[in-house]
Every structure is written in structure tokens, then in C-alpha cells.
Amino acid sequence: MRKQSASVRVKNFSEVAQGFTEKEAIAEAKRCIQCKVPQCVDGCPVNIDIPKFIGFIKDKEYDKAIKNIKEKNSLPAVCGRVCPQEDQCEIKCILGKKGKPINIGALERFAADWELQNSSKSTVNRKPLTVNRKKKKVAIIGSGPGGLTCAAELAKMDYDVTVFESLHKFGGVLVYGIPEFRLPKRIVEIEADYIKSLGVDFKSDYVIGKTRTIQQLKDEGFKAFYIGTGAGLPYFMEMEGENLNGVYSANEFLTRVNLMKAYLFPEYDTPVTIGKRVGVIGGGNVAFDSVRCAKRLGAEEVFIIYRRSRQEMPARQEEIENAEEEGVRFHLLTNPVKLRGDDKGWLKEVELIKNELGEPDASGRRRPVPIKDSNYRMPIDTIVVAIGQGPNPLLLDTMPDLKLNRKGYIEADPEGRTSIPDIFAGGDIVTGAATVIQAMGAGKIAARSIDGFLG
Amino acid sequence: MYKIIDKKRLNSQITFIRLEAPHVAANVQAGQFIVLKINEKGERIPLTIVERDIKEGTISLIFQEVGRTTMELATMGPGESIMDIIGPLGKPTHIEKIGKIICVGGGVGTAEIYPVAKAYKEAGNEIISIIGARSKELLLFTDEMKALSSEIYLTTDDGSAGRKGLVTDVLKELLNKEKYDLVYAVGPIMMMRAVADTTRSHGLYTVVSLNANMVDATGMCGTCRVKVGDKTKFACVDGPEFDAHKIDFVEFINRDRRFKDKEKESLKFYEEAECKCKS
């Protein structure tokens, strides 16, 4: 797939991956051998009929392709860009056994982008499916990928659905977390508009737990609830100096840059400070999003500081490679132990320690073990802590009867049912930080459970 | 969009506005705040809710012009709308009958202690108020606070009203004469720190409401972190009120300054854009 060249893209926030041309898409679609028992479909958390839509692309029937995808996936332009297809559908592709698997993600994106550019030709249903609504009101709390999917599925089943979002824009992590250069915000807006067009009511600036409690929503006639609030509590390292100026949680850094558009400061009024040398702690997609934002904001040297080796990094391979091309340097098998600042409270230096890999831990990855006396210091102006997130207690604190697990996440069964019959939940608030498509899968399953409960 | 119903300039720096925000008005309790964002390009800033009217579905805010958002807000009037208002946020003040409470308000902070003082009064407490400002013109809510208080003391830096000096001068004298049960203080950080230092030796429980920089204000970003005792807290969800004796004010003051240069840059950009509009 075409990409903006590294030297150009580090100076802008425009999308890196440019997508397939029509010619490329057809050529790729022709490679699909249309398996009788397709494995790829099993790998997809929302079970898109992958060979079928690829077949439509091959025949240049793009309208049919996108219609087919949207039967199963309400956010195809998002998923075509940010899903880890290499671990899901593509890993199962039979062609991958001997050569390159079909680039399913790029084909999904191609079909979705075709619709965005040819909306007049598209026949995907944009109106409420029937006028005869079941009238039962369902509240979706959080407009991230899981909430949007659950809302869309329920609207297609004729429920009266309202999505409550605490921020001023819809999309959750898709708008505050994932940067413009990986997922343009215009795309998220258009996909949310599609879900609105299914008859879903959207309320922004609504913090459930504060603006309204679940009980108040019940009093207002809501009969079932889907909690998809994500894992919105940033973890810090609990090390000395973490409150120095210049130290950000990844959530803060990315929210300032993406949601508030700090990269357009001062036209947009939200600032972010960025020094010459920026270190990002962590090895996941959030860490890589942060470090690549820092580079684009003008940092001269940007580092990933990760406690294990490259092999254990949870980020997508593609994004790790992109970051390397953009000049990101890696401090692997390294952990920060202390941050030091000047007398005005500004970060100046990080003290690091080298690790070696020990026995595998619960995640199956080899545990990093600090090497005694291997400490060293490095001058640094900005640190972004991207070591993961926990469950945000803001809403959960107002629901003492809702059963949580040991770590504070909501306890839900595989169908999205919680300890309270009319409360359903899915995505990161149940599983801990995971992927966009996993949250969407959970939202979809929960929609079926809600239908079963209300039906 | 949230419509401005009323606007009053209280003095050269401070403005009162009342806005339509029925979704916020319903659940407000004393001590809570909202976050607002004026327009598409605006910053999200927290402001304390001074009053609310459930029937009208309105909330009232009082703010001092300190940066681009508050300056722009001060130019808006009835009929105009603000793009986003989120709230009520933060933990409400813990209101119970405690006894004798000294409420200390500095500058625009007086508007913030008013709803809390009112709630304490309604819970059966005796309120003693100390209100300070740089000069007479900048004193706020003196009539409202007087109505709630058994005693009220005014101070100004220049002596143009009340006593010349600081709120802590009065506070020291009161504490040396009599026993009190709680001090509740809101104002500039330096004032709150001075209040904490004054009451510490008396072992008098002191609560301050911190006006930290915030983004989402729902506990998601952690920009408002503040060290309280040996723990880092988030002012947006764990606060905004904290035990003043446990706050690490040195760190908080440093953190409060971290976007000062950027704020100046943004203000300059706004003023230049305004000039172009007018010419």
C-alpha cells in the first residue's frame, strides 16, 4: 500500500497509509482463492463474510461489497485502518501459509472509502429500517467503538437507542486516542453519522454517574444499559519525579494532541509542551502513537523506553516499522526508575536501569528482571507514560451493586451480562485494554443479549 | 449549544453569566464545577458553579479574565451560545453540622465559597467570613456573604475598603482569640497556602478547593494531579477540595505554571485576530 514518505510525514499529521487504488484493490481481490470453508471469517471478531465482499471488489461491485461488510460491521472505514488484521483474519488466510496472505484490511478500507467518496451511488440503508419502533429505550454509555456498534445493532433491531458520551465529540478512543495520521477524525465523524442515520440519538457532554445516574435514566424510562466506558484511568509508574512539569500520561498527551488538536495551536487553544528530547515509556500501540505525535510536534530526538525486548512489544508490527522509519529510537530492556527536575519543577533527566529477560510471566512473555548497578542517566525534556490503563471508577462508584473483579473491571459473561439483569457491559471496561475490533465484537454480542432480555 | 441568558460585569476583571444548561442544573451540589468549551477551537476549562435554578434549567458562573477563554467569554452576551458545558463534576463538598466555620474568600474565589457557605449555613453551622481582594472595586459577594455570616471581615491590599492587609492577618487574630471547627478557603494559590500555614499550628482542619488545569475532568488524563499527603490525587475526580495541610503546594504551584508561556502565546494570537476583525 502507498504511504507518505517518512521525511514528509514527520512534518504533518495527515494520514500515513494512503490506501489501495482501484487497480491495486482489484489485483489483490483476484488473489483470493475463495475458500469453501474460509478460515478468515472465524478470525474476525464480528464475522464479516470476507470472501464474499472480496469477490464483489474483484467484480467491481463496490456498492455490494460495502453493503455486505456493513451487515456485520458498522465502522468499516475505522476497522480497515486500525484493526490488527495480521493477528485476526489475515493470520488465518490460507495463502499466508506459503506466501503473503490477502491484505484484507486494505480491501475493507478500500470498500469503505469508496462509499465515503461515492455516497450518492451507495445504497447502504441510511434511514431507520422501520417506522414501527419497539419503543423500548436502551442507553449506551460511552461512544467508543463498542458503544457505537452496540447502538447500531440495537437500532437495526428497532430499539429506541440513546448514546451518552462524556466528551464533546463521539468516538471515544477513536477521537481522543488514535492520532489523525492513523485514523482521520473525519472518518470517525462520518461513521458516527451513519449510526445516527439508523435513528440513534446521540448526547455529548453527558457524564453518566455525574450529569445523570443510571437510576435517573431508569426513571426516565430506559429499560436496558450497555456500559462501554473503556479503560479510562491512566496508570503511572509510581516513581519519584512523576509529577514534574513535562511528564504526561499517554491519555493526557494524546487527548491534547488528537481531541483538542494541540498540533494546530495556537489556532486551537489547547497547548501541549514538547521538548527537544522526548521519551515514551511503553511498547504498545498507545506508546507508538505518542512517540510519533511527539516527532511530528517538532521533537528533535524521540525514544521508546520499553522494559522487554522488541519481540515482546504488543504494538502492531506495521506501526513499529513506521516509527522506525520516522526516526524513533528504541531503549529496549530498559526501565525508568527516577525522574529529576530543576528548581522550577521542570523535568530534566531520567534515570534508567537495564533489564534482562527471565522466566515467562502470566502473559507468557518473558519477565524483565533489572540488572543490578546498570543504572544510567539521560537528559530528557518530556516523558509520556504509556504503560496501560485501568478501569475509570467515575461511573462504577455510583453503582455499588454492580459486581467488579479484583482489578476493578466489570464482571461480565461472554454474552455481556453483568451481575445486574438490565446492565450489560463490554470492551475495555470488562477486559482491560484491548483492541477496537474486540470492543466492537463485545458490543455486537451484548446487543443480542439486550434484545433477548427485552424481547 | 448552551444559551447565555444573563450577563453582568461585576467589576473590571470579573463577569457573571447565567446559562441554559438543564442537564447540568438538575444534579448540582455545592462545591462542584463544570467544564466549558466556547467553540470548536476552544480549550476545555473548569469553572465553579455558583448558583443553579432547577426550574429554569440554568446555572450561573463567575469568572475572572485570566486567559483567552475567559477573555472571549467576557465578550459574549445574552442570546449567544457556548458550544459545550459538561457537568456537574468533582466531588461535592461534604456538608454536615460541624459548628463554627470560617469561610475565607480571595478575589474571584469568594464567588466559589458562596454556595458552600450557604450549604454549611443551611446545615446549621455558624459562618464567619473573611473576604479579601486587591482593592475595594474587586471585592465580591460582600452582601451575599454578609447575609450568611454572624461576623464578616473585609480586607484589601491597598486599604481602599475594610482593613488594609491580607485575609490571613484577620485569620491569625481570630484563631488566637477563639476556637473554630473548620476553615474553608478559596482564592489564589498563594492565599490558600498562606491560610493552610496559618491554621496548621492550631491543628484546625482546613479545606481548600483547587483550581487546577484540566482537560477531560473525568479522571481520564491526570493533568490535574496534585500530591496530597504521600499520594497523588486527581483534582477533577478526587477533589477539587482537599485537606489543605496535606497538599504539596510547592509542587502544585510549579504545575500551575507549566502552560503559562503557551497561554501567553495563545492570548496574543487571539488579540491579534480580534484586532484584524475590528479594523
* Poorly predicted ranges of chain B: none
What best-fitting shape of chain A do the alpha-carbon axes yield?
A: globular
- Rounded to the nearest angstrom, the radius of gyration of chain A is 23 Å
> Quick check: average pLDDT of chain B?
95
Taken as a percent bin, the fraction of beta residues of chain B is 25-35%
This entry's quaternary arrangement is heterodimer
For the biggest β-sheet of chain A, the strand order reads: 5-4-3-6-18
Span of the ends, CA to CA of chain B: 29 Å
Give me the side-by-side strand order of the main sheet of chain B. 6-1-2-5-4-3-7
Total domain count of chain B: 2
* Low-pLDDT runs of chain A: none
How would you characterize this protein structure?
The complex is a heterodimer of chains A (455) and B (279). By secondary structure, chain A is α/β, with parallel strands linked by helices. Chain A has three domains: 116 residues, Fumarate Reductase Iron-sulfur Protein, Chain B, domain 2; 160 residues, FAD/NAD(P)-binding domain, CATH 3.50.50; 155 residues, 3-Layer(bba) Sandwich (FAD/NAD(P)-binding domain), CATH 3.50.50.60. Chain A has 17 helices and 18 strands. In chain A, a hairpin with a 5-residue loop joins strand 13 and strand 14. Chain B is an alpha/beta fold and 279 residues long. Chain B folds into two domains: 88 residues, Elongation Factor Tu (Ef-tu), domain 3, CATH 2.40.30.10; 110 residues, Nucleotide-binding domain of ferredoxin-NADP reductase (FNR) module (Rossmann fold). Chain B is 29% helix and 31% strand. Chain B is built from eight helices and 16 strands. Chain B has a seven-stranded antiparallel β-sheet, with helices on both faces. Chain B starts with a strand and ends with a helix. The model of chain B has no long low-confidence stretch (mean pLDDT 95). The chains are: A alpha/beta (455), B alpha/beta (279). The interface between A and B is large, with 45 and 45 residues.
